[in-house]
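Dear support,

I submitted the protein below through the web form. The confirmation email said the job was done, but the results page showed an empty box. After a refresh the structure appeared. I'm attaching both so you can tell me whether what I see now is the final result or a partial one.
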Amino acid sequence: MSKDRRNDEAVRITTAAENRNADIAVRQRRYLLSMSLRSLCFVGAIIASLAGIAWLWPILIVGALVLPYVAVVMANAANTRGEGFALLNQGLEHRELGGGPAHR
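What the results page shows now:
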């Protein structure tokens, strides 16, 4: 019985993905932070409007409208580790130990 393997390339421990639960927890925290900032922008826009600060409330409203998109994109972005180096195939054709007495 042979197993169907899609990728026979070895996974290096430095590029392996994080635990799925940890990844979801990080995404949830990023989303919650972004949506909290959106709520603060909305409340700040109302307070700025009531206080008569005419230049600030439109900026905060734009922030409140744009932040949901940013929050969703950040929440869906997977935390991937890139390879910072390449393994060299040196040493496969060069043997460190010489042959035995029969090879001399």
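Response: this is the final, complete result; the empty box was a page-load delay. The chain has two helices and no strands.
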